[in-house]
């Protein structure tokens, strides 16, 4: 991987994760108590021995930038030329913000070219999975490919959310269709499934950079890899599919797009379960993050009706469960759950104080929130809507200002802005 540059796209606005992305970038949203979403992809990079990584940020990136600088800068050896470096929009070749995934890479073409990589690995910072990119690179080189796409088999009913890849039996890509309503394409390896793009691409640098320049000059382009770059390369260059090899070591492949509140919630509930599908405790594939100097988590009081305990839950350092019960939940750093409170099936971000006699279930509590004594959340959606954000599925999200939210993200808005950075 020494001649490979990783370009990690982390500038998405994350509208579907509102209100968690109201004040932070989507890749900076906490995950599994002590991580951020972007930590998963960065851990894959380090575990794959990829140590030259540019991170392209854009929207509300302060906390993300700080997390990368303080948590990931020390991981690589700068004296050996290694780096994990943030590239904010610099408007070096354009006066606009990133117009799509391809445009984001194009606007940083000077920085990419200055590294003189032989290969460019395009990654996304908002998915949960384990993957050895080195194995993908081995296939790319061995096959003599100009472009390699990582693919994942899914059920045909789900294709409208993905780029569908038509693959020959020898692994060569013969067709590509971005987010069709339906498809007759089937995987040559699993005939009842459809191969779709994971948004992970390896390009030979001498192929990609000229194509990015052409795309930037095309006024009709959406400047997106799936919509524009890949279809234009198809048939002109050798494009291969790489069948996803899951380092999670479970019977079913694990790859999750946590771009919606419901998907994000379910992924967190999984890691808190007794036998999670996504294994955070695999020493052969460690998950890294920024280190915080908090004391160990503590559970106090053992009286009848006032016992501090957490069941089937993750509790991060600095947290105190004081005479209260936490079930099936994820508690981030520095959370205080006071006596006689009951927290069930919820995600609690850092620096939250939950008062006495509170009852909270099926909720996400954002950081720095103080929940007054006796507050009830998640038991009456009509009452919750008076003070908090409630998703269509009934998930209650509590933010710092306790404002009543009207969700600004309509289906029409999402359709019009699906590729906006």
Automatic annotation (TrEMBL):
Q: Which residues form the Nucleotidyl transferase domain?
A: 6-271
What are the site positions for Could play a key role in the communication between the regulatory and the substrate sites?
58, 97
Top enzyme class, one word, equals transferase
Recite the UniProt keywords alphabetically: ATP-binding, Carbohydrate metabolism, Glycogen biosynthesis, Glycogen metabolism, Nucleotide-binding, Nucleotidyltransferase, Transferase
GO terms in the biological process aspect are: glycogen biosynthetic process
Q: Which domain of life is it from?
A: Bacteria
Note the InterPro entries from the entry.
ADP-Glc_PPase, ADP_Glu_pyroP_CS, GlgC_bac, GlmU/GlgC-like_hexapep, NTP_transferase_dom, Nucleotide-diphossugar_trans, Trimer_LpxA-like_sf
| UniProt domain Glucose-1-phosphate adenylyltransferase/Bifunctional protein GlmU-like C-terminal hexapeptide: residue ranges | 295-398
Give residues annotated as binding alpha-D-glucose 1-phosphate. Answer: 98, 163, 178-179, 197
Q: Is the Cell cycle keyword given for this protein?
A: no
Quick one: which pathway?
Answer: Glycan biosynthesis; glycogen biosynthesis
The entry lists its GO molecular-function terms as:
ATP binding; glucose-1-phosphate adenylyltransferase activity
Question: Which EC number applies?
Answer: 2.7.7.27
Catalytic activity of the protein: alpha-D-glucose 1-phosphate + ATP + H(+) = ADP-alpha-D-glucose + diphosphate
Family membership: Belongs to the bacterial/plant glucose-1-phosphate adenylyltransferase family.
What is this protein's function per UniProt? Answer: Involved in the biosynthesis of ADP-glucose, a building block required for the elongation reactions to produce glycogen. Catalyzes the reaction between ATP and alpha-D-glucose 1-phosphate (G1P) to produce pyrophosphate and ADP-Glc.
According to the record's subunit comment, the protein's assembly and interactions are: Homotetramer.
The protein's name: Glucose-1-phosphate adenylyltransferase
């Amino acid at each position: 991987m020494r001649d490979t540059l990783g370009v990690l796209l982390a500038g998405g606005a994350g509208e579907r994760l509102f209100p968690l992305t109201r004040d932070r970038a989507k890749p900076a949203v906490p995950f599994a108590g002590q991580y951020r979403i972007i930590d998963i992809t960065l851990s894959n990079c380090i575990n794959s021995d990829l140590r030259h990584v540019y991170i392209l940020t854009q929207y509300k990136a302060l906390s993300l930038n700080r997390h990368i600088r303080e948590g990931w800068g020390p991981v690589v050896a700068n004296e050996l030329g290694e780096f994990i470096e943030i590239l904010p929009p610099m408007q070096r070749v354009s006066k606009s913000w990133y117009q799509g995934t391809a445009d984001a890479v194009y606007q940083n073409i000077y920085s990419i070219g200055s590294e003189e990589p032989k290969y460019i690995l395009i990654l996304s910072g908002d998915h949960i999975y384990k993957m050895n990119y080195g194995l993908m690179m081995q296939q790319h080189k061995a096959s003599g490919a100009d472009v390699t796409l990582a693919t994942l088999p899914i059920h045909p009913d789900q294709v409208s959310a993905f780029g569908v890849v038509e693959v020959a039996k020898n692994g060569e890509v013969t067709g590509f269709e971005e987010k069709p309503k339906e498809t007759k394409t089937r995987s040559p390896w699993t005939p009842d499934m459809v191969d779709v793009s994971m948004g992970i691409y390896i390009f030979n640098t001498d192929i990609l950079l000229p194509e990015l320049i052409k795309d930037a000059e095309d006024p009709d382009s959406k400047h997106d890899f799936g919509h524009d770059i890949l279809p234009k390369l198809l048939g002109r260059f050798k494009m291969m599919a790489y069948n996803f090899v899951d380092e999670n070591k479970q019977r079913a492949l694990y790859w999750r797009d946590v771009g919606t509140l419901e998907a994000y919630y379910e992924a967190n509930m999984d890691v808190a379960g007794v036998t999670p599908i996504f294994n955070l405790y695999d020493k052969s594939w460690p998950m890294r993050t920024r280190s915080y100097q908090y004391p160990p988590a503590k559970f106090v009081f053992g009286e009848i009706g006032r016992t501090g305990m957490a069941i089937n839950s993750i509790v991060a350092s600095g947290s105190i469960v004081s005479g209260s019960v936490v079930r099936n939940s994820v508690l981030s750093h520095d959370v205080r759950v006071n006596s006689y409170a009951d927290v069930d099936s919820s995600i609690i971000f850092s620096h939250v104080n939950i008062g006495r006699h509170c009852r909270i279930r099926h909720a996400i509590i954002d950081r720095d929130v103080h929940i007054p004594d006796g507050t009830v959340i998640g038991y009456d959606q009509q009452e919750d809507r008076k003070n908090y954000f409630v998703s269509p599925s009934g998930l209650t999200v509590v933010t710092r200002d306790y404002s009543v939210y009207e969700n600004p993200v309509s289906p029409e808005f999402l359709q019009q802005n699906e590729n906006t950075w």
